[in-house]
C-alpha cells in the first residue's frame, strides 16, 4: 500500500499515513483525464452567443431599387448578408455545449489525476491547517516552508480563516473535499490535502 509522510503547518513530520492504492496509486489513464477536462470546460460554456439571420433583421420588405436599368446587380432585400446592417449567414445561436459522461468515467479520471500527483511527488498531506486568524501573510509563510507557491489546497469542510487568507494569493485555490475535481488538480502543479480530506476522498473513490 502507498504511504506518505504527514506534516504539520511548521513542516514537522508528525506521522506516516497509508493511502488507498485504488485512489492514489492506480494507473494514470491520460485519455480519461482528457475526457474529464473536456467535460468540465464544455459545461462551463454559456452558449449564449447569438446573431440575427436575414429573416430576423428588421426591414427589407421592399426592393432597394428596381430590377433593371440601374446598372447595379439586382437586389431583393437590404437584409441580405452582403449588405451593411444585414443578417449574418451561418452565425451562432444559443446552444448547450455540455455532454454526458458516465459516473464511473468521472471517478476513474479523478483517481488518475490524484495518482499522477502522488507518483510525481507533488502531493503533500498535512494533519490540519488551523490558522489563528485571517492572514494572507501567515498562510503564505506556511506555503513558503514547503516551497509551494502554486498549489491546490483541499480541506474536509468549512475553514473560513484558511479560505479568506488564501483568496488574495493569485496561484492558490482552496477547495472542500466534496468539490475536488480533475481540472483544478491539473491546473495547479502541487496538491495539498489534509488528513481528513484524504479520508473523505478515499471514502468516495476507494473500491
Describe the fold and architecture.
- This protein is α/β, with parallel strands linked by helices and 207 residues long.
- Helices cover 34% and strands 15% of the residues.
- Strands 2-1-3-6-4-5 form a six-stranded mixed β-sheet, sandwiched between helices.
- It is elongated and about 95 Å long.
- The mean pLDDT is 94.
What's the quick description here?
With 207 residues, the chain is α/β, with parallel strands linked by helices.
List the main descriptive attributes of the protein structure presented here.
7 helices, elongated, alpha/beta, six-stranded mixed beta sheet, 207 residues, Ribosomal Protein L4, Chain: A
Give the secondary structure arrangement, pairings included.
Layout: E1 2-7, E2 13-19, H1 21-24, H2 30-44, H3 103-119, E3 123-126, H4 136-145, E4 151-155, H5 160-166, E5 172-176, H6 182-187, E6 190-194, H7 195-205
Parallel strand pairs: 1-3, 3-6, 4-5, 4-6
Antiparallel strand pairs: 1-2
Helix pairs in contact: 2-3, 4-5
Number of domains: 2
The fraction of residues in strands falls at 15-25%
For the sheet with most strands, the description reads: 6 strands, mixed
Determine the N-to-C terminus distance: 14 Å
Q: What is the SS-derived class?
A: alpha/beta
CATH structural architecture of the largest domain: 3-Layer(aba) Sandwich
What is the count of β-strands?
Answer: 6
What is the typical, i.e. mean, pLDDT?
94
User: Which outline best applies?
Assistant: elongated
CATH superfamily of the largest domain: Ribosomal protein L4/L1
Estimate percent helicity: 25-40%
**CATH topology descriptor of the largest domain:** Ribosomal Protein L4, Chain: A
